[in-house]
Specification:
19 helices, 394 residues, mainly alpha, 2 strands
Amino acid sequence: MDFVLLLLLLYFATQLFIGKILEKYPTLSKKTLNNLFLYHFFFFVVYYITTIISRSDSQEYYRNASLIGGNWKLIGNTSTKFIDNFAAPFASLGLSYESVMLLFSWFGYIGFVHAYLFFRENIPVDVKVFKKYDLLTLLLFFPNMHFWTASLGKGSLIFMGLMMFAFAIKRPRQRIVTLLIGGYFVYMIRPAVMLFVLGGVMVGLLTGREKLGIGTRIIAVLASIAFLSSASSTILGSVNIDQNSENVVEDFQDYASAQSDRLETSAGSGVNMQGYSLPFKFFTFWFRPLFVDSPGILGLFSSAENLVYLLLFLKICNLRFIGFIRKAPYMVKMSAITFLLASYAMTFVMSNLGIIMRQKTMVMYFGFFVVYYFLAEEQWKKEQQYKLDVSPVA
């Protein structure tokens, strides 16, 4: 009964949320926002069915949350313990496993709404694929992205946090609440990912083509450095490194090697990531499995989606992209650096294709943003050139 009531409550909350968004951004599509809600709910159902068939981490999260009861705390615990404590208030209210899972799935939907805002606000050009379909629609409805953000766990919350942060960072003073909420979830779930995001922000601010005041740049860099300094022990602790270590790089390599070996042997979809060259590590993280190494039926669907990723990224494999990225705006460079740094770190600790499919949902939209912006700029230039070519000569 509580599940039905919560579903109705979330549906009406979503309609109010969509209404508020359209008041501020009337050019957005109400149909797309509603379709995202229904589509994401469908993947919640799919994920829930998989929990009935096989073991799921979401079940363990709910059990831990139920044991915590009213003794939860949302500060001081990161990663898995944070999820346990964040779910605890809902479990202590008597919500069932299905209801808490539905709530977390809704948080994942909020992430997709902010991804839509992030793309559309920065890239108002519609990039067409297959002659008439908008590429952004394709990006927003990738099945793998919805599947791994539709359950009780880290995926839904960190995706929401990352997309809220990405949307808010363009106008931080006007969107300070959204920025802080997004940053909070990212930091509490994956402290190291917050490091990569801030690295992207600093590089983007300092090298973007926008004419930002020196004061703004200095404040942003100093704020990021202050945060990293105060949070260094938590960030290093998340990868089992002592902040007083004499060789942090070596300690990280030892941790990464041990983690990689554990994941490689944890399931039949293990890959020898440590033995790969760096380019192939990136290829594996971004585009595998690809049919021949698909782990199960889910892997076949993921392979089809990964093929689309590969075709998209091939669009930027040209000299024009090098010129574009050199002069790209702040948001593009921020996204590119965040995407590359997070991917680089993940290649050291991920050695299982099943886990890779889940983990890369955190960062792929930053890569998609760079590709989409490049294609939009290319299309805009072609349209402008066409107008010049067909305009009558005076």
